[in-house]
Design goal:
There is one protein chain. With 297 residues, the chain is an alpha/beta fold. The protein has 13 helices and 11 strands. The strands form 3 sheets. The protein has a 7-stranded mixed β-sheet with strand order 5-4-3-6-9-11-10, sandwiched between helices. Helix 2 packs across helix 3, helix 3 crosses helix 5 and helix 7 packs parallel to helix 8. The longest helix has 15 residues.
Length: 297
């Protein structure tokens, strides 16, 4: 690609140096695969969608179309950012969760598939219930609350976060998906912003920070260097959020909690919550990551 760009710059463009959309996609996929990056095809397509301002379907409609030098230059800049470790979601500014597209930036965590499994569990358990209020603690980009609003149209929701920058993104996403009138956004930590609403809340769901700060060195560099640490790391071996919940069980009576957890925290959380645990589930990778608590009235 570099040689082709140089030849185009000096007006010497041979037929074998013409870069079509399809040729660039195929070349880049192979290049990223050699670099050891995950999902090279998907990453390549997302960069091309951004470069050409078109969706995936139109990429393939334009598969044999020549790319202009300016487009190639833009694509190369985006590709360099990926190779240097920047997550593609932060480059494109969007990420999919379920079938929905969400705005993301470096203030919010990039949503993961394990969290989709948590949301699926909440939906399955509560799809037939009426007059339900669900609180999403630590909403980040709002993917949990907004997806629940889309999939459970009769449910009321409250979403909280400690960071105003996160709430700003979440509100934008709620507006994007036309559910802003069904979600109340509150700023604050843990249960503090919910104090005046606890009586009406039936379900609490959370994907809290749960990674021990001692494990930071084991994390992928792209995560450490780019994603917000406040959404990843917690004190007390990553257990700080759960310990705070355990200390407030008296105000959570009659409620059900669905929590995402660290893969190595099962024993500690079983000791912490005891018979309050209704079910502990493995994720699609076979790790213990999804916890359901039932707090007796």
């Amino acid at each position: 690609m570099e040689q082709a760009l140089k030849k185009q710059r000096f007006g010497v463009r041979k037929i074998e140096d013409i870069w079509t959309v399809g040729k660039v996609i195929n070349w880049t996929q192979g290049y990223l695969k050699k670099k050891g990056l995950d999902n090279p095809r998907n990453t390549t397509e997302k960069l091309m969608e951004m470069t050409l301002d078109m969706d995936k379907t139109h990429l393939y409609i334009n598969w044999k179309k020549d790319m202009e030098p300016k487009q190639l230059s833009t694509f190369k800049q985006l590709l360099n950012r990926v190779v240097e470790g920047e997550p593609v979601a932060y480059i494109t500014g969007v990420e999919r969760f379920f079938s929905y597209e969400f705005l993301v930036n470096k203030d919010v965590l990039i949503p993961r598939q394990e969290t989709e499994e948590l949301v699926e569990w909440v939906v399955k358990d509560n799809r037939d219930k009426k007059d339900l209020t669900i609180a999403d603690i630590g909403t980040g980009s709002g993917v949990i609350a907004i997806t629940l609003a889309k999939l459970l149209p009769d449910v009321k929701l409250i979403a909280t976060d400690t960071q105003q920058a996160c709430l700003d993104v979440a509100v934008q996403n709620a507006q994007k998906h036309s559910v802003e009138d069904r979600i109340g956004f509150l700023k604050g930590s843990l249960l503090e912003p919910l104090r005046g609403y606890l009586r009406e809340i039936d379900v609490i769901v959370a994907n809290p920070p749960y990674i021990s700060k001692q494990d930071m060195d084991r994390m992928d560099a792209s995560v450490i260097n780019h994603e917000p640490h406040h959404a990843l790391f917690a004190d007390n071996d990553g257990l700080a959020f759960y310990q705070a919940i355990a200390k407030n069980l008296d105000v959570l009576k009659g409620k059900t909690l669905y929590l995402e957890t660290g893969f190595n925290q099962k024993e500690a959380l079983e000791a912490l919550f005891g018979d309050k645990i209704e079910e502990y589930r493995k994720d699609m990778n076979g790790n213990w990551r999804l916890l359901k608590l039932k707090i007796s009235p």
